[in-house]
Amino acid sequence: MIAVTGVTGRLGRVVIEDLLTKVPADQLVAIVRNPEKARDLAERGVQVRHGDYDDPDSLVAAFTDADHLLFVSSPDVRPGVRTRQHMHVVDAAVRAAVGHIAYTSAIKADQGVGFLEDHAVTEHLIRETAITYTFLRNTFYTEVFVNPPSVQAAVQSGELRAADGGKPLNTATIRDLGLAASAVLTGSGHENRVYELCGPLWTYPQLADAISELSGKPVAYREIPIEEAGEMAFVFQLVRDGFFAGSTDDLPKLLGRPATGIREAVKALLAG
Fold first, then answer.
1. Taking every annotated instance into account, which residue ranges of this chain make up the domain NmrA-like (predicted)?
2. Which of 199, 216, 182, 195 is nearest to 265 (CA)?
3. Closest alpha carbon to 91 in 119, 122, 70, 114
């Protein structure tokens, strides 16, 4: 039995949909806070179970009989909240005798950057159990940078503005990261492995060129000061610090193909 948390989120949904192409529906468990939101999965034969990261007993019941569990990290980043919720998940997995945990961590979770602390703590908690694990250290989603509002604004203004400091990024699409998780859940040889999941490196000038080519409208790249980056300032500071500058081949190995590049991401967005 394969259990997946967070199936109503974008990543979890990709995972469960791909699993449905590989595994009989009655061997899948979709764990959600509100089962009504996963009614379509129940209608397709998936076992939909209530599970709330703030309700440990609900998690034990939801994880029962799970040979493999995909533990999608909590989106609640308020101080102390995610760590507490993740403690509940790990404890429930032990109590329910889960066979294997695949956890969606974050790239460089072991390097002590402040916002990664919750992931480092969670990895430690899982390592301390007797359960085998796979840490899926996901990079930032390409969709954070390449999305309808940002691309449309660039096309309309003829300018792509970014406070990137000229540094490259190794983002990955949500779909690629979800398919990689599905591959781990249905594959073998992933016990006690750590994967740094990154896409191919790209730069903002390359993104501007891709938007220009694929939209048919000229778009020029312009670097701006970090002070003008608004709500993206935190992310762009990470870019400037070289946080996204490295890359690995872990993602393409799990996918069995090259990870989606920036041009392909723009093409898919414009086609959509």
1. 2-227
2. 199
3. 122
Q: Which amino acid is at 45?
A: G
**Which DSSP state fits 260?**
P
95 within 8 A of 154, measured Cβ to Cβ: no
Local structure of residue 130 (DSSP, 8 states): S
pLDDT above 70: percentage of residues in the chain: 100
Cβ atoms of residues 187 and 247 within 8 Å: no
Question: And the tokens for 265?
Answer: 């991401």
Q: CA 61 to CA 95: how far, in whole Å?
A: 10
Give the 3-state secondary structure of residue 136: strand
In terms of DSSP bridges, do strands 132-138 and 2-5 run parallel, antiparallel, or are they unpaired?
unpaired
Mean pLDDT of 107-127: 90
pLDDT tens digits along 248-267: 999 999 999 999 999 999 99
Cα 179 from Cα 181, distance rounded (Å): 5
Mean pLDDT score, 140-160:
96
Q: Are 190 and 183 in contact (CB under 8 A)?
A: no
